[in-house]
Write a structure and sequence with these properties.
Helices cover 32% and strands 19% of the residues. With 179 residues, the chain is α+β, with helices and mostly antiparallel strands.
Length: 179
């Protein structure tokens, strides 16, 4: 998923092309996927990220650019994808192949949402705009999911490599500390 504008990053760069440690975030995510057991990578840019589409060297599914959920639904409706589908946000610069493989190994069917404790995000000093209660614990989605048919499940991890989504300049600074 790489169609964000990145307005909170206060830059002219499209969010997926925002550089963390000198490398566009989308390149880091594509590299993590290439280093994993994933057998096919398809990007989902939007009209908000035209330079991202031309930057990428993977097939693309154009999304409407109306927000993450709407764009995800549009991508999943494309007949080039079959479920289950691993979805990954382009703003996870710490992601690597090992973490992707752990997510895939944790998937037992249906859909899987990867969560981190909200306290982990706060402890790292990164934004936690979206949190909710799950099993009596405040958690945050990571931007990594497996979308399948069947029951929904959640995987809670303490791994900072999926806890650091870059939405602000302060988030980018935290990510650079861990690179």
């Amino acid at each position: 998923m790489c169609g964000g504008r990145g307005t909170r990053l206060a830059t002219d760069a499209e969010k997926p092309l925002f550089r963390v440690g000198g490398v566009p975030m989308v390149d880091r995510v594509v590299g993590a996927l290439r280093d994993s057991a994933v057998d096919r990578i398809v990007a989902a840019p939007s009209p908000n990220a035209p330079n991202t589409r031309s930057h990428l060297d993977v097939p693309c599914i154009e999304t409407p650019g109306e927000g993450y959920v709407t764009d995800l639904d549009a991508a999943l409706a494309d007949d080039r994808l079959s479920r289950p589908v691993l979805t990954v946000a382009a703003d996870l610069p710490l992601l690597n192949g090992e973490v992707v493989d752990r997510v895939l190994d944790s998937h037992e069917g249906g859909s899987l949402t990867v969560l981190v404790p909200a306290s982990l995000k706060r402890g790292l000093g990164v934004s936690d705009d979206t949190t909710f209660e799950d099993g009596g614990r405040e958690v945050a989605p990571t931007g990594v999911n497996v979308v399948g048919d069947g029951p929904d499940d959640a995987w809670l991890t303490q791994d900072r490599r999926v806890a650091v989504n870059v939405n602000t300049i302060a988030d980018a600074r935290v990510a650079e500390q861990w690179l």
